[in-house]
Amino acid sequence: MKVATKAFGLIDVDERQKIQMPKGLFGFESFREYVILDAEKQPFYWLQSTEAQQIAFILINPFLFRSDYELDINDSVLAEIGITKPENALIFCVVTIPGGGEPMTANLQGPLVINRETRTGCQVILSDQRWKTKHDIIAELAAGKN
Fold first, then answer.
1. Which of 37, 59, 143 is nearest to 105 (CA)?
2. From the CB of residue 99, how many other CB atoms can be counted at a distance below 10 Å?
3. Which of 16, 45, 55, 71 has an alpha carbon 20 to 30 Å from 89's alpha carbon atom?
4. What percentage of residues in the chain have a pLDDT greater than 90?
5. How large is the greatest C-alpha to C-alpha distance in the chain, in angstroms?
6. In this structure, are residues 129 and 135 in contact, taking their beta carbons and an 8 Å threshold?
7. What is the pTM of this model?
């Protein structure tokens, strides 16, 4: 399928890269169909809306820089997207890359949880006070929290 992307223009995408977000993302609830694309630089990915070219988010696997990351998610939330076993879940966090030399951060408080079998996902808000919306990725890697 063809998808108009923010980062790469019009590209061909495999159907297996499609992700349904029935409730959308916080602040972007009306956008529910996405594709996950490899970014030019690993370990990042793009979550690209298939409904609006300018709606795209940079993602990272939080366990790459926070091996102590824990998600306490209500089973009913996981059941909504069909996850019954932890190994069926893909976890990503949205990355912010601000201008002006500010650090690149990841939102560990609002991760995306995706069922790897059905490719259905949701964004959750964690109540654990350790997780904030802005975790400095490079600083936490340097501090050895990975």
1. 59
2. 5
3. 55
4. 84
5. 43
6. no
7. 0.92
Both structure tokens of 118: 């059905």
Average pLDDT over residues 114-133: 96
Cβ atoms 21, 59 nearer than 8 A: no
The CATH number of the domain covering residues in 2-142? 2.30.290.10
Q: Does the pLDDT value for residue 146 go beyond 60?
A: no
How many C-alpha atoms does 107 have within 13 Å on its Cβ side?
20
Does the pLDDT of residue 42 top 60, yes or no? yes
**Is pLDDT above 90 for 145?**
no
Question: Distance between terminal CA atoms of the chain?
Answer: 37
Report DSSP state, residue 85.
S
Strand partners of residue 94: 59
Q: What is the radius of gyration, based on Cα positions, of the chain?
A: 15
d(CA 81, CA 78): 6
